[in-house]
Structures are given as structure tokens and as C-alpha cells.
Amino acid sequence: MFKPGRILVPTDMSEHSNKAIREALDIAKQYNSEVILLHVIKEPVQQCTVDYCISEGLLEQLNRELTDAARKNIADQLAKVGGVDGLKITTDVRTGVPYDEIINEAAEKNVDLLVISPLGATGLAKYIMGSVTRHVLLGAKCPVLLLK
Q1: What residues contact residue 83 under an 8 Å CB cut-off, 6+ apart?
Q2: What is the C-alpha separation between 143 and 33, in angstroms, rounded?
Q3: Distance of CA 106 to CAs 27, 63, 115, Å?
Q4: Topology of the domain comprising 6-146
Q5: Which of 11, 71, 117, 144 sits 20 to 30 Å CA-CA off 27?
């Protein structure tokens, strides 16, 4: 019988992500699993534009503020979703290409199940699967629960 010990849920703070989190929490309650929430910052602050560069110190500060804001948003999202009492939940924020970072996180944390929504914050269309989800499905080494 499949009993996931660690469940990874990527979040982009959208309502679609909330559904994935709720589903992962339900599974975690049933199997006493750890839930790992991951947010990927796609485009960090650029140090230089065509004719202007910001200092390395300011760049580090801005990137740190982005990460801190993402962690706060994840905490707010968890509070909004609710039902977290008694569950082991960890959060992580990474920077990079979202599907690469999701796949890397799953491998590094030895995830048993990945729970993801086919649409994210962009909600481009109700009839197509998001490109991040498609790449995750193709590259994941663990089972993926794709929510409707």
C-alpha cells in the first residue's frame, strides 16, 4: 500500500494552489505525512539594466526581502487554508526556473508524492495545462497527484 511520508506542494499563492494544499493536508492527516510547501521566485532582482547597476549590497537586501515576503505569504496562505493542527509542515523558498526547482526540491527532500494543480496564478485557460505542471509531470521521479 502506498503511504507517502513526505508530500511536496508547490505554491504560487493562487486559489489553485490552495486546492492542492488542502488535498495534501488531507492526505497527510490520513498517513501522518510531512507536508513541504515550496514557492519558487522566478525572476530575482536584476543587478543591471541597460545603463544602470545597483550595488551588490542592495541586490542582496532586495533578494532577502523577496524571500522573506514569500515566506510570509506562505504562512498567510496556510492560515487561510486552515486545518494544519498537529501536522508537520515545512516551507521552502527557492529562486530559479519553477519546474526545475520543484523537481530538484522533490529529489533533495526524498519526496514520496507531489501534489500540484494544473493551473497557477496566471490561469491562462481552463482547457490547457500550465507549462510548469507539464514539465513537472515529465521530470518528476516520484508519483504526482494532478488536481482538477
Answers
A1: 22, 25, 29
A2: 15
A3: 17, 23, 11
A4: Rossmann fold (3.40.50)
A5: 71
Pairwise CA distance, residues 123 & 102, whole Å: 19
Please report, for the chain, the start and end positions of each structural domain, with discontinuous segments joined by +.
6-146
Identify which has the larger pLDDT, 97 or 44. 97
Within 10 angstroms of residue 17's Cβ, the number of other Cβ atoms is: 25
Q: Which three cell numbers stand for residue 107?
A: 529529489
Distance, CA of 27 to CA of 86 (rounded, Å): 13
Burial class of 133 by CB neighbour count within 10 A (0 to 12, 13 to 18, 19+): buried
Band of pLDDT at residue 2, cut at 50, 70 and 90 = confident
Integer Cα distance of 139 and 133 in angstroms: 10
